[in-house]
């Protein structure tokens, strides 16, 4: 049927088919297979009730399957009440369907109770555990999620990748959970995630694409150590990056002031050079890095390039032509090694490196970072408005690596005053005159009391 039928219409249909045995079961199977509307199946149940005075366990189970597969969770609650009131126990199929449906709703904790009932009779499946774990993560109850995960592993079950995916996607909320004194700390949560990776390593399990993406995102996420709120990412969105790239190319790279620092011919030659090369992962301001090593206490340019090469990165070193002349400051052997380990471009000695560094870094893509201590204040001043200058400043904080005895890494989150609904996060210290890359390490977490 393509619409709900009355009891009389169902009776006529049954008679027209020769009054087959188990008509209601065969019909609910057909409705499920065809993806029929729920109201049609409901009308079949009404007919079955009128015919026999009751609903069989098997018919209700098939109807339950249709409800769960169609996402009709409110109807599942009604079926649950009927089956619990009519039958002394539920078999595996019904329990699994109820756990799956309840776990998708605000009544997810009832799925935990269902799981406890199931354990009295048989061992729940990894899918049963996985559905409730995902629900616990969604509702911020990481303590319950990890307790169920431990139980799953202790029973020798193999977690589904969707279960790992949920745990890696979980945004930690350090809130009190009913019946527990305190929630799991962020460091504990991160340690547990590392345990999953170790389990996958030991069992030679390869994550599927979606899980790999969640693992990557989890390690890139910055969370407040105090309240667990997710902090604003230091990375620009694709739209923000493209907007900034367009403005920098127009106002800085192609602006008139740039030719006070180089020549049109040299800049075009460099653009052609960059476009012939693969996208760079890191662009190094060679002269700037070398000048930080005058007291020999910090990494040399060769040491920096060697370390970046060791990490498997594609490196561009920007230098001046005088660096190619063998002197006490520029040993020929070292310069030859640098040219073996990285792509190199040497500008005229009168040129400034900044426009070249900006062009190569932005041309290579949002992943590309640069190594320099230059603050680039002049370039920010060339940008037309405050919004673009703020984007440039954020991009700079998220992409600038600094050599100070070692190559300083970039934080996952943006070090700026930010809010996440009912909480504020304020970075602070006593530094008065700071460089772009010098950011506070202390945070004030302010949460509104309710």
TrEMBL record:
Catalytic activity from the UniProt record: Endonucleolytic cleavage of RNA, removing 5'-extranucleotides from tRNA precursor
EC number annotated for this UniProt entry: 3.1.26.5
Gene Ontology BP terms: mitochondrial tRNA 5'-end processing; tRNA 5'-leader removal
Domain PRORP: 221-445
Co-factor requirement: Mg(2+)
Any single Gene Ontology cellular-component annotation: mitochondrial ribonuclease P complex
Cellular compartment(s): Mitochondrion
PPR repeat segments: 125-159
Highest taxon in the source lineage: Eukaryota
Predominant cellular place of this UniProt entry's protein: mitochondrion
Family statement drawn from the similarity comment of this UniProt entry: Belongs to the PPR family. P subfamily.
Listed name of the protein: Mitochondrial ribonuclease P catalytic subunit
């Amino acid at each position: 049927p393509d619409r709900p039928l009355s009891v009389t219409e169902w009776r006529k249909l049954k008679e027209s088919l020769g009054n087959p045995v188990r008509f209601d079961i065969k019909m609910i199977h057909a409705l499920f297979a065809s993806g029929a509307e729920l109201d049609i199946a409901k009308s079949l149940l009404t007919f079955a009730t009128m015919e026999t005075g009751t609903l069989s366990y098997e018919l209700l189970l098939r109807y339950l399957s249709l409800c769960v597969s169609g996402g009709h969770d409110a109807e599942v609650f009604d079926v649950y009440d009927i089956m619990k009131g009519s039958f002394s126990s539920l078999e595996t199929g019904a329990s699994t369907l109820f756990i799956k449906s309840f776990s998708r709703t605000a009544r997810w904790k009832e799925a935990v109770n269902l799981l406890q009932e199931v354990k009295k009779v048989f061992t729940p499946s990894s899918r049963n555990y996985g559905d409730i774990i995902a629900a616990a993560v969604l509702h911020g109850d990481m303590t319950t999620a990890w307790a169920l995960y431990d139980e799953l592993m202790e029973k020798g079950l193999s977690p589904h990748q969707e279960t790992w995916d949920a745990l890696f996607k979980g945004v930690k909320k350090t809130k009190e959970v009913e019946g527990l004194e305190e929630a799991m700390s962020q460091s504990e949560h991160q340690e547990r995630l590392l345990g999953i990776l170790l389990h996958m390593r030991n069992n030679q399990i390869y994550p599927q694409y979606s899980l790999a993406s969640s693992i990557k995102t989890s390690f890139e996420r910055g969370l407040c150590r105090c309240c667990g709120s997710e902090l604003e990412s230091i990375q620009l969105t694709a739209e923000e990056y493209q907007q900034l790239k367009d403005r920098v190319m127009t106002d800085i790279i192609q602006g008139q002031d740039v030719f006070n620092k180089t020549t049109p011919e040299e800049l075009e030659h460099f653009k052609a050079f960059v476009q012939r090369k693969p996208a760079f992962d890191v662009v190094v301001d060679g002269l700037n890095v070398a000048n930080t090593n005058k007291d020999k206490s910090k990494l040399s340019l060769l040491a920096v390039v060697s370390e970046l090469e060791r990490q498997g990165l594609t490196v561009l070193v920007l230098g001046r032509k005088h660096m190619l002349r063998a002197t006490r400051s520029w040993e020929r052997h070292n310069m030859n090694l640098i040219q073996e380990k990285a792509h190199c471009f040497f500008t005229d000695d009168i040129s400034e490196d900044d426009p070249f560094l900006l062009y190569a870094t932005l041309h290579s893509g949002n992943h590309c970072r640069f190594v320099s201590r230059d603050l680039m204040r002049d370039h920010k001043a060339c940008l037309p408005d405050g919004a673009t200058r703020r984007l440039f400043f954020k991009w700079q904080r998220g992409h600038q690596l600094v050599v100070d005895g070692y190559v300083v890494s970039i934080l996952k989150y943006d070090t700026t005053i930010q809010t996440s609904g009912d909480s504020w996060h304020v970075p602070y210290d006593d530094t008065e005159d700071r460089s772009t890359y010098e950011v506070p390490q202390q945070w004030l977490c302010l949460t509104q009391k309710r």
